Design the sequence.
């Protein structure tokens, strides 16, 4: 088929099964947007490029597909960088197609020129600068292959403006051939055998579940391993939902704001079985004193992550879709009664959970943020997707919302990006239109990308945005309160911004809840509204996220609510 480069991009997206892109037009991509117009390609116009890339990210996390975003050259591309870095840290598959100035002007500081490949090299899995239209189909085929295989991640394709206009005899490749990258991540079965042997000797084992389980869609295999062994389990922030919160042997999230039982189990176990985790610093506390009694096992697809932060005694390198089914089968056939072997340990850790549950002090005259999250959790069904921004509300959501299934707790974990929540919620809802989508934000975070209320309203995207409104940058002020002698430097938000009016000005609905006696009834009514709505919930200004492991402390040196 004879077509121009812009049409070739869209045909390639169709071949990859892309059913929706997010973006924002500009001079360098006008030919691409003309093709979008002519071909009626499904596209959501964000109100800022960062909103577009976060929406593509939320779409990818909720669906398991590759998210796609368009942006123009220069500031369009640079406005994507925060979202690209967010996706890169959390291993989210994206293909970001940016315009570049025309070939004759590259490198000459032309209007709206920026070296987006150079800028994004540290925060992408791979990137391309396309200067010849004949390369477009191959590059697009490779980009999707790279983004979704192995450890997923974002890929940037920067396309010179004149490439979109040039014509090509279009043919989409059937296969990908990349030097040094096959996409095959099967490992050595002997490593699985060694892991099985290690389990047979463990008396105090613990399953440690990370975001890699979500990304590889292997939560069912992990649950099968838990059923076979009876081992207690915990998870990272990114692993929430991979084990149901209601599972009797699930201890909750580990780390800086993890549960008492999860953190103490890490410190006292003799075998820590890490599955799809990278042992981030928010999980480990003092690295040299992390899991001091344990031999550590790591199931991981990316060899760079094995032993990078924490030395490991056993590794199983390979795609979890390859390793976990084999691991489960070998455990099943081993003949070992793992449950009997670890019965005393399981009883011990479950007692820790009973003795030190997540808790908070009720205050009769105000709405407690923890109570708010608990109420939302109770009102939502098992298929609801929860998205968060970053800050105290994020941690309260992680602690008190009962995640039931994978791909139902979407949050910026590694980069901690304020402003992620609203656009990511829009992307998640567009990707999963039959599921309810609720976003927890803060009165700080919501302002970072509040313009996307217009995107939600104009496209009638049914998202519920709950602002945990405490008139402060909550997590910043908590640290200032605990470690900086209550010097609340630039963290107080006592302005006159009316968030309800802000949402309404952009075409969304808005309401405010400030009476604890009416919390459940008014919240239920607001959540049942059709279309996008901002629910502004007033909570105390001074309330800490606890438990908390202070910086430089071990996981067993938590500050608890009762303290």
Sequence:
């Amino acid at each position: 088929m004879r077509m121009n480069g812009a049409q070739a991009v869209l045909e390639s997206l169709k071949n990859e099964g892309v059913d929706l892109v997010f973006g924002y037009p500009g001079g360098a991509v006008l030919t691409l947007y003309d093709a979008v117009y002519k071909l009626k390609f499904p596209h959501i116009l964000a109100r800022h490029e960062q909103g577009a890339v976060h929406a593509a990210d939320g779409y990818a996390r909720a669906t398991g597909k590759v998210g796609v975003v368009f942006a123009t050259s220069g500031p369009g591309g640079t406005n994507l960088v925060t979202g690209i870095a967010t996706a890169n840290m959390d291993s989210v598959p994206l293909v970001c197609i940016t315009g570049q100035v025309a070939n004759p002007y590259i490198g000459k500081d032309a209007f709206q020129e920026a070296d987006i490949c150079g800028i994004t090299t540290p925060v992408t899995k791979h990137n391309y600068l396309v200067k010849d239209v004949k390369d477009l189909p191959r590059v697009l085929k490779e980009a999707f292959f790279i983004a979704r295989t192995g450890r997923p991640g974002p890929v940037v394709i920067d396309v010179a403006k004149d490439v979109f206009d040039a014509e090509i005899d279009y043919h989409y490749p059937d296969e990908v051939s990349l030097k040094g990258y096959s996409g095959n991540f099967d490992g050595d079965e002997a490593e699985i055998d060694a892991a099985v042997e290690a389990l047979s000797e463990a008396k105090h084992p613990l399953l440690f579940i990370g975001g890699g389980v979500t990304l590889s869609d292997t939560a069912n295999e992990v649950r099968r391993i838990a059923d076979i062994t009876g081992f207690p389990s915990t998870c990272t922030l990114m692993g929430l939902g991979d084990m149901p919160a209601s599972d009797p042997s699930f201890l909750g999230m580990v780390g800086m704001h993890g549960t008492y039982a999860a953190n103490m189990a890490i410190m006292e176990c003799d075998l820590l079985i890490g599955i799809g985790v990278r042992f981030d610093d928010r999980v480990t506390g003092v690295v040299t004193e992390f899991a001091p009694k344990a031999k550590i096992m790591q199931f991981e697809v990316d060899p760079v992550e094995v032993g990078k932060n924490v030395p490991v005694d056993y590794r199983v390198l390979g795609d979890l879709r390859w390793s976990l089914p084999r691991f489960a089968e070998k455990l099943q056939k081993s003949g070992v009664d793992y449950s009997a072997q670890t019965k005393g340990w399981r009883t011990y850790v479950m007692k820790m959970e009973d003795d030190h549950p997540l808790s908070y002090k009720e205050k009769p005259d105000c709405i407690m943020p923890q109570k708010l999250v608990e109420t939302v959790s109770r009102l939502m069904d098992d298929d609801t997707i929860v998205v968060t921004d970053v800050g105290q509300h994020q941690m309260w959501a992680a602690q008190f919302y009962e995640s039931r299934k994978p791909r139902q707790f979407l949050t910026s974990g590694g980069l901690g990006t304020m402003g992620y929540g609203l656009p990511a919620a829009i992307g998640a809802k567009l990707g999963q239109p039959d599921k309810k989508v609720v976003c927890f934000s803060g009165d700080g975070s919501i302002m970072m990308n509040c313009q996307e209320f217009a995107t939600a309203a104009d496209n009638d995207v049914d998202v519920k945005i709950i602002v945990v409104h405490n008139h402060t940058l909550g997590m910043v002020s908590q640290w200032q309160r605990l470690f900086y002698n209550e010097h609340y430097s630039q963290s107080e938000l006592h302005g006159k911004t009316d968030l309800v009016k802000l949402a309404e000005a952009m075409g969304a609905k808005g309401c405010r809840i400030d009476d604890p006696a009416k919390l459940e009834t008014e919240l239920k009514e607001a959540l049942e509204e059709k279309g996008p709505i901002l629910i502004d919930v007033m909570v105390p200004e001074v309330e800490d996220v606890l438990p908390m492991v202070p910086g430089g402390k071990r996981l067993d040196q938590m500050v608890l609510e009762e303290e």
About this structure: DSSP finds 23 helices and 20 strands in the chain.
